[in-house]
Structures are given as structure tokens and as C-alpha cells.
Design brief:
Elements (H helix, E strand, L loop, with lengths): L6 H12 L6 E8 L2 E9 L6 H12 L5 E7 L5 H17 L2 E9 L2 E4 L13 E2 L7 H8 L9 H6 L8 H8 L11 H21 L5 H10 L3 H9 L6 H14 L5 H14 L3 H14 L4 H11 L6 H18 L4
Parallel strand pairs: 3-4
Antiparallel strand pairs: 1-2, 1-3, 4-5, 5-6
Helix pairs in contact: 1-4, 2-3, 6-8, 7-8, 7-9, 9-14, 10-11, 11-12, 11-13, 12-13
């Protein structure tokens, strides 16, 4: 994330951090060495229980966070909203984390609860900056990040299914699934190669026109070894490519083939900091296959506040092992 020097910069950055313009939300940013380490968004509750508060603080305490920025987006601040804000802020400081900044956003105006300089922080607040015209947006778009969705509903729509391709459905029926009573290795290798071919074509064209390749990949991703190969094949440099490609495939995948793709997309979305989108992807996975084990595992990981950059560490340990098993270390 680019350098943030003012509350206006911060408010312009939030939609890029969470993927959409928040409303009725609480956004908490953890800082480490003066850099944003993690962004957490939750719906603004009518009240917050002790268990919910404990879970929230456990998220903030991970990855050795040093301080927190809290932003509260509320249509109107009343007594109950003030009580929620006070409860959360007290819990943060009681845990030992310092509050770098606290901002409320109400009716398109923002106000710092920490700043006492009335020249820059008047009682009536300041106008929320126009995202499109902000320096932050210009820098983020120049770096290749898309403009955030206007609402959470639009974000969810971005991974909603499109009309099923009837030709793709026919091609899927022609591909044999792996028979594990026989030697599965050659078909698993075929699946790993399909991952590589799919990503190469998507990188070149921004889509994949080869429906036979799409069908082969969807069938082979049902194999856990192939899915885990796909999970580990992403790198820091290719993260945005995989994010866009898996989202494209997720929207096209028919029933019965959604869960593996949704999990792959959820993992890269979470690593990019798009936690809300990652959770919605898992909703799609569970709607397709409620017993899919990886969905449950990733849900636990996301809810526990596991640092997104930990996925890179996981890849560095997992992927070489899978490559070795499939291809004796080469592909």
C-alpha cells in the first residue's frame, strides 16, 4: 500500500484494502513498523458480546501488531453506536495495543476522535474525499489494482455464476474422473499441466477460449493433489493474475465443479487482503459441496485472523513437495 499521511489518504485507501466502499461497518487496521499489516472489516453491530469482542481482539493481536487504526462507518451515531465504539476502543487499549487513529464516518463526513486541532479536525467533521479523484486511487490503479466495488452487494455479484455453457457441460461428461483403484499419477500430472496451460492462456488473452482445456481443468481439480498443486503454483508476482483467472473460472464453473475453484479463489483473495470476498467465495463453495473439507479449514483460518502473508510461507513449504511427488521435482 502506498504511503498514507492524512485521514483523507486513509479513507481513500480503505476501499482498496477491503475491496469495496464500506457502509455500516467497522474497519480495523493493524500496524507494524508503521506499515499496515492487516485489515479487518465487520458489520457494525447493534451490540457486541464478550465472546465477539474476544474474537475481534484475538485477530488484532496476531502477527505482533503494535498499534491499531479504527474507522467506524455509521449512518447516524446514537447512544447504542457510541456504546459499541467505546467498548471496542476500551478493549483494544486494555489489551495493550495503542490507538494510532480513531475516525467516525457519518453522513458523508468524517471526524477524528483523537485529533484536538479544530483547524484540521472541526467538530462538524470534514467531507469524505471522492475516491476516484484521490491520489491514493490514482496510485493504486497505476499499480494494477482495480477500482473497489461501490457496495458489498456488488462485490458479491462479482463472483456470482453466469449462464452455464451447454457445450462446456457436454465436454465435462467426456472426461474420465480419476480412478484411484488404478495408478492415478499420470492423470494427476495431466491436471497439473492443465493448471499451467490455463494460466498461460489467461495471462495472454485475459480469458480462456479452449473449452476442452477448461473442462479438463475443472474435472482434474476435483483431485486434491491437483488442487493443492494449483494452490501452491501462485507466487507474489502472479498473485493478481491468479486472482483474476480463478474468479473468471469460478463464475463459469457449473454445479458440482465449483468448490475446488472457489477455494482456490478464496485463498488468493485472502492473501491479497480481500477478506470479505474470500469469505463470500467460501459461501459459494459450501453451497456447491457442504462437506468440502478445505472450505471448513479456510473458514477457520480466515476467522482466526491468520496473517494473509502466511500463505506465502505455506506455499514455499507445500508446493515443492507436491511437485516432487508429481514430477520428481520438475514440471
Amino acid at each position: 500500500m502506498t504511503t498514507l499521511t492524512t485521514p483523507r489518504d486513509l479513507l481513500s485507501a480503505i476501499p482498496f484494502l477491503i475491496g469495496f466502499n464500506p457502509q455500516d461497518s467497522i474497519v480495523l487496521l493493524t500496524l507494524k513498523s508503521d506499515a499496515i499489516a492487516m485489515a479487518i472489516r465487520i458489520d457494525f453491530p447493534n451490540e457486541i458480546s464478550a465472546d465477539e469482542l474476544k474474537l475481534l481482539i484475538s485477530h488484532l493481536s496476531r502477527d505482533n501488531a503494535e498499534s491499531v487504526i479504527a474507522i467506524f462507518y455509521i449512518p447516524e451515531i446514537g447512544e447504542s453506536q457510541n456504546e459499541v465504539i467505546s467498548t471496542i476502543l476500551s478493549a483494544i487499549t486494555d489489551y495493550g495495543l495503542s490507538l494510532r487513529e480513531v475516525i467516525t464516518v457519518e453522513q458523508e463526513r468524517y471526524r477524528s476522535l483523537i485529533c484536538e486541532d479544530l483547524l484540521c479536525c472541526p467538530v462538524e467533521g470534514n467531507s469524505v474525499p471522492d475516491l476516484i479523484e484521490s491520489r491514493i486511487a490514482a496510485e493504486q490503479v497505476a499499480a494494477g489494482r482495480p477500482i473497489p466495488f461501490r457496495t458489498l452487494d456488488q462485490l458479491i455479484e462479482s463472483i456470482s455464476p453466469i449462464q452455464v455453457d451447454q457445450e462446456l457441460l457436454k465436454l465435462l461428461t467426456k472426461i474420465d474422473e480419476i480412478d484411484y483403484d488404478q495408478e492415478p499419477l499420470e492423470l494427476q500430472r495431466q491436471g497439473a499441466r492443465a493448471v499451467n496451460e490455463f494460466m498461460a492462456e489467461f495471462k495472454t488473452h485475459g480469458l480462456v477460449r479452449d473449452k476442452e482445456l477448461i473442462a479438463l481443468l475443472l474435472v482434474r481439480l476435483k483431485d486434491l493433489q491437483v488442487r493443492d498443486y494449483a494452490l501452491g503454483s501462485v507466487s507474489a508476482e502472479s498473485l493478481d493474475l491468479y486472482f483474476t483467472a480463478w474468479r473468471w473460472l469460478l463464475r463459469s464453473a457449473p454445479e458440482g465443479y465449483i468448490a475446488p475453484v472457489a477455494n482456490l479463489f478464496a485463498a488468493v483473495a485472502y492473501e491479497r487482503g480481500d477478506g470479505a470476498l474470500a469469505q463470500r467465495a467460501l459461501d459459494r463453495a459450501e453451497g456447491d459441496d457442504s462437506s468440502y473439507a478445505m472450505s471448513k479449514l479456510l473458514r477457520q483460518v480466515f476467522n482466526s485472523g491468520w496473517a494473509p502473508n502466511s500463505f506465502a510461507q505455506m506455499r514455499s513449504e507445500l508446493h515443492p513437495k507436491i511437485c516432487s511427488e508429481l514430477f520428481s521435482g520438475t514440471i
